[in-house]
Amino acid sequence: MAVGVVNTTVDYVLFVGLTKVLRLPLDWVWVAKLISGTVAISISFYLNRRWVFRVTGAPMGQAARFVATTVLAVYAIQTPLTQLFANSYPGLGKALYDVLKDAGLSGSVVTQALAIKTVAFALGTCVSMTFNFLLYRFWVFRSSSSEPR
Fold first, then answer.
1. DSSP code of residue 149
2. I need a surface site. Which of 33, 70, 82, 107 has the fewest CB within 10 A?
C-alpha cells in the first residue's frame, strides 16, 4: 500500500503540475498523464521489486513482464480513463467542486478544473492499480519456486 501511495503521489503531483505549467486544457490532459505515468513506472518497478515482493537475482525477465503490465495499465487503462472522465464525463469532478465550494474550500488553488482532473485521475488510478497489483503478484514477481509465498 505504501508503494502505491508513493507512486500515486508522484504521479498526481507531476500530472497536476504539468497541466498547470503547460497550461493544458481538459481535452489535452492525456499529455501530462503520459509523462507523469512514465516517471511513476520507474519508481514503481524499483520499489515493488525491492520492497514489496523482495525479489533478488537477475531482473531482466521481471523487468520485461513489469514493463508490459505497467505500460498496458498506464497507457491503455489509466490514461484513457483519465481523459474520459476529465473531458467527456466531467460530472463527478464538477460535483466534487460543488461540494468543496459549498464547504468554502474553493478559490484560486481549488478550481473546478483541478477538481475535475483530480477525480479523473483517481478513477483511472483505482482501475489501473487493481490491474497492476494482480498481475504483479501472480505474473511479474511470482515466486520461481512451487512453494506458496
1. -
2. 107
Per the structure, the count of domains in the chain is 1
Q: Which three cell numbers stand for residue 99?
A: 461540494
Whole-Å CA distances, 76 to 33, 55, 103:
12, 27, 36
In angstroms, rounded to a whole number, what is the distance separating the alpha carbons of residues 22 and 95? 25
DSSP category for residue 28 = G
Q: For residues 64 and 124, is the Cβ–Cβ distance under 8 A?
A: no
In a domain, 115, yes or no: yes
Q: Nearest CA to 130 among 95, 78, 89?
A: 78
Alpha carbon 63 to its chain's center: 19
> Tell me: the pLDDT tens digits for 31-72?
999 999 889 888 988 888 888 888 777 677 888 898 899 889
